[in-house]
Design a protein that fits this description.
389 residues; alpha/beta; Rossmann fold; 6-stranded parallel beta sheet; 14 helices
Length: 389
């Protein structure tokens, strides 16, 4: 079976959970001896990683490279669709797996003109981003495009059961085509217990947007520091094109200026840099209003960090309150502060939660387990032979 993944993010081009999850799945499929390739849109001239520029006639509009045993076809946003179809036909995939609805025009052309079955993973629902996460109005405009992808796919991958319920509400009639397959993480040794430190470090990792609960976190920081002034907070991420100083000036309220020594903004971080912050952290907070999965949760579990997360979406399904994490109501800064303070004050409880979460991760969330579920979805669509024009 040959699977071609269509995406706008693939390592090292990562802007969030999409790139991390797509890269992990592709590499895990390759490790399972499944033939995989990636059609990466934007990786050539005119990507968000390089300076944006139109392609000149002399430019090569497509580039092929190998990375960790995976073939990657990089094409620009200006790629002629006939050339894209030629590239795909030459590789001869049995299934195309779409990860970004932004490139639906490419996926639909391959699907319709070459007759290749299409799988679409819903990494986030734009309608839910707007209705549940109070995202910008552009989410509604984008939803029409995403809705077309959902109805046009042969199989729709939902990352969690709660997302499947939302899909059923938003897109009636597609329930029979939805399959629930979460993301995974690379195998590693079970995380060692964190040493008991005099000053506890709390980590937040992600974008600084409303639906991630960043405002509630800032309010909770003030409450926590009023009772436990030695706690250190690390706020990693924000916005890709903004510095740590810009993030601090935008987000930190004046009443916390006197406690700047305890609140560190890192700016946008690479995966390697984030590993260092996870190692330094004792507690991970995930205060999202809407979280379709939450790769950050798996990362925290893998690094042996005790987790306090809002009881929504992916975190609520991955974690169990009182056994592998503390779950609290979303949009409740005081509940978040109470969860942090309990973990700060009870190191034994903190270590028990982290150890149980590490075991849970190795039992259910490593990539080999996820690959088996994804293979079952692919097998539903596999055809005895494919004919390419």
């Amino acid at each position: 079976m040959r699977i071609l993944h269509l995406t706008t993010e693939f390592p090292p081009i990562i802007y969030g959970g999409l790139g991390t999850a797509t890269g992990g799945l592709v590499n895990a499929l390759a490790d399972a001896n499944i033939a995989v390739a990636v059609l990466l849109v934007g990786g050539g001239g005119g990507s968000s990683y390089d300076a944006f520029r139109p392609l000149a006639k002399s430019d090569n509009p497509a580039r092929t490279r190998r990375q960790d045993g995976v073939t990657i076809f990089e094409i620009s946003w200006f790629q002629n669709i006939a050339e894209t179809l030629r590239i795909v036909s030459a590789w001869r995939p049995d299934i195309i797996h779409l990860h970004s609805f932004w490139i639906w025009h490419i996926a639909s052309a391959i699907h319709e003109r070459l007759g290749i079955p299409l799988v679409y993973t819903v990494h986030s629902l734009d309608r839910a981003e707007y209705e549940l996460g109070q995202g910008p109005p552009q989410c509604i405009g984008q939803w029409a495009n995403q809705e077309a992808v959902i109805y046009g796919a042969d199989r729709v991958i939902s990352l969690t059961r709660s997302e499947r319920e939302l899909l059923g509400q938003y897109c009636p009639g597609i329930d029979g085509r939805i399959r629930v397959v979460g993301n995974g993480i690379e195998a590693s040794r079970p995380a060692a217990a964190k040493p008991t430190r005099e000053a506890v470090t709390v980590l937040y990792s992600g974008r600084f947007v409303e639906r991630k609960g960043i405002r509630e976190l800032i309010e909770a920081i003030g409450i926590v520091l009023a009772e436990a002034p030695s706690v250190r907070f690390i706020l990693a991420g924000g916005h890709r094109d903004c510095t740590a100083a810009q993030m601090e000036s935008w987000l930190l309220p004046p009443h916390l200026y006197g406690q700047r020594a305890q609140i560190h903004f890192t700016g946008w971080q690479s995966q390697e840099q984030m590993t260092g912050w996870y190692e330094a952290a004792d507690i991970l907070v995930v205060p999202s209003w809407y979280e379709p999965f939450g790769m950050v949760v798996l990362e925290g579990m893998a690094h042996g960090v005790a987790i306090a997360a809002a009881s929504v979406g992916g975190p609520a399904e991955i974690l169990e309150h009182g056994r592998t994490a503390i779950l609290f109501p979303p949009r409740d800064s005081r509940a978040l502060a109470r969860a942090i303070l309990r973990l700060v004050r009870d190191s034994d409880y903190r270590m028990r939660l982290a150890a149980a979460a590490s075991r849970e991760l190795h039992d259910h969330w490593l990539w080999p387990s996820i690959v088996r579920k994804m293979q079952a979805v692919y097998a539903e669509l596999a055809r005895p032979s494919m004919s390419y024009a």
